[in-house]
Specification:
single chain; Hypothetical protein af1432; 3 domains; 4-stranded antiparallel β-sheet; 15 helices; 9 strands; globular
């Protein structure tokens, strides 16, 4: 039951169900939320004159269907309905504005060693899982959950290390490593969206296993170097229902995780497959999965196309927003990856050329860059990394900054050769 209340009578713990103005005219992340901080309470008092609270159970969030993960008695019912137990779906209603970033707990350099070990474990689990699917065996969900949990902790500490490793691609291992990269990107994006640790684990398991159905697609179609025929494309599309079937028959994988596999090829305007869903009906994990799956696919070299640079890919995806992707989430994904994503080849104000190896989440124009070529476009004898946030002014007294993004392949630079040098 809802009750109208003056903002001056609001208290911490109350659940705000509606405002005295349209949600779209505000900067709130969620449509419906618990007042869990003084900052949020003060913001409501500045913005509104009155709000509507959910009065059942005293107006607390726990009485609402979008309840806290700590409400363990109700988790299973929510999961069984395929819904995320907190506010994930509500994220879709509005782009995040004036977002407060999660502070990094380590530097990318400090995190890299642990991330390498976790990535190796994840590869082993993924190869074993895909082989089990190919042979018709049951999936070891325990191993998948364990390695995703470690990936989540690494991404929470600092996502750049795992994202850097996701750029190390092998065209001959696309299917397996694509799934790993999609998992990493989904976790980094989920962290950016301030998903909880529990939500990140659910999202990560779904992302890691989103393409298991491809093991049921003939290899000659999966790896065909030319365009698929209409009949072949129909067979290719079957990997979605096949994957869903496999995951539904695997113990311990919840419906909200399976949503990634079921809906990562759905498109915002309804033009995707397999169910032809559109808009928010795709679900938050489905929409997130679609964005990160597409990004990795178009930035990867395949037998039939050359991958785009990260900058080009994000530009294309921005153009495709509303048609293919939730526009607010695409904008947030671009913010997550950075104006100059990891792996971008850039030219600095001095004329030097380098590769972006780490982003600055508070100052997006100031990433760390591995210098590759000097201003005369000759290789540096000793390659070094500069943090544009801390670097001294150049010889003219101006701050060192990026002036342009250079197309992939320029000057014979392969970004991957330089990404691992952050350690």
């Amino acid at each position: 039951m809802r009750r109208k209340i003056s903002v001056h009578d609001l208290r911490l713990g109350m659940y705000v169900a509606d405002l005295d103005r349209p949600w779209r005219s505000t900067r709130f992340l969620y449509q419906g939320f618990e007042i869990d901080s003084q900052t949020l309470l003060d913001m409501l008092k500045q913005l509104c004159q009155f709000v509507y609270i959910d009065t059942e159970g005293g107006g607390s969030k726990k009485s609402n269907s979008c309840r806290s993960l700590s409400a363990a008695a109700h988790q299973d019912a929510l999961y069984d309905q395929g819904e995320c137990p907190t506010h994930t779906v509500c994220i879709l209603k509005e782009p995040l504005v004036n977002k407060r970033w999660h502070p990094d707990k380590t530097t990318a350099r400090e995190e890299l060693e642990q991330a390498r070990g976790i990535e190796k474990q994840a590869k082993d689990v993924l190869y074993s899982t895909l082989e089990d699917v190919r042979l018709g065996k049951n999936i070891s969900t325990t191993a998948a959950k364990q390695v995703v949990a470690e990936m989540v902790e690494s991404v929470i500490r600092n996502p750049d290390a795992m994202v850097v490793l996701s750029q190390l691609k092998d065209i001959d291992e696309y299917t397996a490593l694509h799934s790993l990269r999609v998992c990493i990107l989904a976790l980094a994006f989920g962290r950016h969206l301030e998903l909880s640790r529990e939500e990140l684990n659910l999202l990560g398991v779904g992302a890691l296993l989103h393409d298991v159905g491809k093991m049921k697609v003939p290899s000659e179609i999966l790896n065909k170097p030319t365009h698929l025929t209409e009949q072949e494309f129909e067979i290719m599309k079957s990997h979605v229902p096949e994957g869903v079937k496999i995951l539904e028959n695997s113990a311990g994988i919840l419906p909200v995780s399976i949503q990634v596999a079921a809906r990562h090829h759905e498109r915002y305007d309804g033009g995707g497959y397999s169910a032809g869903l559109s808009g928010d009906a795709i679900g938050s994990f489905g929409l997130i999965g679609g964005i990160v799956d597409c990004y990795d696919a178009i930035t990867s070299d395949r037998v039939y196309h050359k991958g785009l640079s990260a900058y080009e890919a994000l530009s294309r995806m921005y153009e495709w927003r509303t048609r293919d992707f939730h526009p607010g989430l695409v904008e947030q994904f671009i913010q997550c990856m950075g104006i100059y994503p990891i792996g971008s080849v850039v030219e600095l104000s001095t004329g030097a050329v380098g590769v972006v190896v780490s982003v600055n989440r508070e100052r997006r124009l100031k990433p760390s860059v591995a210098l590759v070529l000097n201003p005369d476009k000759q290789p540096y004898i000793c390659e070094k990394i500069v943090d544009l946030m801390c670097e001294s002014p150049d010889s003219t007294g101006n701050p060192l900054e990026i002036t342009k993004v250079i197309p992939t392949g320029s000057y014979g630079i392969n970004p991957v050769d330089h990404l691992v040098k952050i350690d």
